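Continuing from the previous page of notes. For each protein in this section, the sequence appears first, followed by its structure tokens. Read the first protein now.
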Amino acid sequence: MAESAGPRPIVVLADDLIWSTRLVGHVKAAGLAAAPARTAEAFRASLSRADGAIVDLTSRAYDGLAAIAAARDAGVPVLAVGQHDDHVLRRNALAVGADRVLAYRKLFEDGPATITRWLAAASVVPADPGVNRESTEATSR
């Protein structure tokens, strides 16, 4: 069976059903396909078919930093999300290859626009000229 020439999904790694649902919803609201993964194994298996990956760093069921490294090794851009006050984890996520690390609040304030800008910066999708870039550039502190 031949692969589709269209856009490939954004893999969302989050084991918590509520966070996963919210993150997948933001990807879809940005007009993109989403592929939820709740385990590291499912995440790694999806990377070869992904245009990007969003990794929830707070899970205890998988190693978020290892997931970021796996995506980066596969050439897949990574947006990581986590607690606003965990500066060490955020710094480590960037060190292993995340393009950006955002606080949950940032994605819930303007998730679709933030996701679109991240992918545009990673050269995966064209930038949306209708998005107000200034209102969404700063991350929550």
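Done with the first. The second protein uses the same format. Note its length before scrolling.
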Amino acid sequence: MSKADLRPQDLCLVDLEGKQLAGGRPRTSEILMHLEIYKEVPEAKAVVHCHPAHATAYAITGRVPPTCVIPSMKSSSARWRCLPTKLPARRNSPAR
């Protein structure tokens, strides 16, 4: 779903174990990655996870793109990080 199409009723609320507490749409499997970030970085207030083509290209090289490449980066005061690329993980599945 595109960010432009998101409405408040599309969001869900989960606890730190991934149990959905509220919301009309089911949580995605990617919530587990977001929860790990919250656990590892207690000062984190939000996790923004997206896949813009240019950002993905930079991520593959292990570099954070300059703010002029990704418009939403200019409007944020947050610190941006590039994490190592991995295959999606599933809870209780063998490590990849």
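What the second structure shows: Residues 31-40 form the longest helix (10 residues). The first strand starts at residue 13 and ends at 14. We return to this in next week's lecture.
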